[in-house]
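PROTEIN DESIGN WORKSHEET
SECTION A - STRUCTURE
LENGTH: 411
TOKENS:
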């Protein structure tokens, strides 16, 4: 059983995969960095952001001022609203087609470009290569999401080089938000190094080639980050809005639901029904693998965030986590159909990636997590509503029998 030290305020432990430090008072670096949200002068930080983007404004009005990576979920509406309406920039939106799309995600993305009146470039890597890479990364590092993360982080940078638009604007920095890897005042920017070490589990596209003989050059070249010479020739830089705007995903999504009809639907493995509604796997198979490998899942991330924002107490957070992380991952059969594998084959691979140090077994061989002690049978049925999260769409993901691999059909 995992015995690493746990933060006294949130639920993260010292074994967080992004790296986390607990201080002498028992409070983690993520919680300490979060405190800055209530002490920084956000008005002056906003002015600073305006100064930073000012030289990138294309005065001719016939080209783009910046690149904004988007999807049918995950703060995309909030980011585009800030960039286009508050900063007055003309963004080129870019999105990587992750293939595991829900109809709600396709709808949200279509509505995004219509409501904000933006051009968009969509990267559709051929399905043959995407499946080959997914098969490899699932088997070797227990990740079905490596191609999505690699594509989402490479394609905007490739587009910046291709179009000669140097400024890329991202939302929040995950390392800062979760574990306080940096202070807001460090104003950390996008780097090749962070992408490789944390987004890509330490493996670049070319590393897949040297390890696995089933993949070849044709399969991986779309996932390459541009070389340094190309980046410096254009002057590419990527900034994070979270360093200049007090980041609060719940409040942000709620504003976007009201103002721009962003739509949401509930999940079985977390109470936050705002993030990741565009994907069948992020809160499903990907979340289960996270649980197997690291002993915690996305509901812990959501609970820690809500504790830090003062909307959830620690005891209730532990109950919520114990409740949700036990729920089975949905939509596995869609993944099996898409990749052409059977249920036994998938289960075999999943079991290989379960970290035995994080789980114990009861007398019947059933796996027990450290959170089982907090299971509370009296938790209300409608936990999402209790937490104040609102599912605006009645979409039942289970009604859809497959991924929408390429989405269209919305005006
Ligand atoms: Zn903490």
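SECTION B - SEQUENCE
RESIDUE ASSIGNMENT:
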């Amino acid at each position: 059983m995992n015995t690493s030290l746990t933060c006294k305020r949130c639920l993260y432990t010292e074994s967080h995969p992004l790296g986390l430090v607990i201080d002498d008072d028992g409070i983690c670096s993520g919680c300490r960095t979060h405190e800055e949200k209530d002490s920084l002068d956000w008005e002056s930080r906003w002015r600073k952001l305006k100064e930073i983007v000012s030289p990138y404004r294309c005065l001719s009005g016939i080209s783009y001022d910046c690149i904004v990576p988007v999807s049918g979920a995950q703060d995309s509406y909030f980011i585009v609203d800030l960039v286009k309406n508050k900063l007055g920039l003309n963004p080129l939106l870019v999105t990587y087609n992750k293939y595991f799309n829900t109809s709600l995600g396709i709808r949200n993305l279509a509505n995004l470009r219509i409501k904000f009146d933006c051009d968009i470039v969509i990267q559709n890597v051929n399905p043959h290569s995407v499946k080959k890479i997914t098969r490899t990364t699932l088997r070797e590092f227990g990740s079905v999401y490596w191609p999505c993360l690699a594509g989402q982080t490479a394609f905007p940078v490739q587009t910046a080089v291709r179009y000669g638009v140097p400024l890329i604007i991202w939302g929040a920095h995950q390392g800062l938000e979760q574990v306080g890897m940096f202070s807001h005042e460090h104003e950390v920017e996008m780097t090749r190094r962070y992408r490789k070490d944390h987004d890509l589990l330490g493996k670049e596209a070319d590393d897949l080639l040297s390890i696995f003989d089933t993949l070849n050059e044709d399969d991986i070249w779309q996932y390459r980050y541009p070389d340094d010479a190309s980046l410096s020739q254009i002057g590419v830089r990527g900034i994070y809005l979270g360093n200049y705007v007090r980041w609060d995903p719940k409040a942000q999504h709620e504003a976007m639901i009201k103002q721009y009809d962003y739509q949401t639907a509930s999940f079985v493995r977390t109470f936050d029904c705002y993030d990741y509604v565009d994907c069948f796997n992020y809160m499903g198979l990907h979340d289960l693998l996270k649980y197997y490998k690291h002993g915690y899942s996305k509901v812990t991330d959501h609970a820690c965030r809500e504790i830090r924002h003062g909307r959830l107490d620690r005891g209730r957070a532990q109950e919520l986590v114990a409740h949700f992380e036990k729920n089975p991952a949905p939509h596995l059969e869609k993944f099996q159909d898409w990749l052409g594998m059977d249920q036994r084959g998938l289960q075999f691979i999943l079991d290989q990636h379960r970290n035995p140090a994080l789980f114990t077994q009861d007398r019947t061989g059933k796996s027990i997590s450290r959170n089982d002690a907090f299971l509370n049978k009296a938790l209300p049925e409608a936990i999402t509503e209790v937490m104040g999260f609102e599912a605006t769409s009645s979409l039942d993901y289970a009604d859809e029998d497959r991924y929408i691999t390429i989405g269209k059909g919305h005006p």
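SECTION C - NOTES
The chain has a mean pLDDT of 92.
The CA atoms of residues 102 and 278 lie 5 Å apart.
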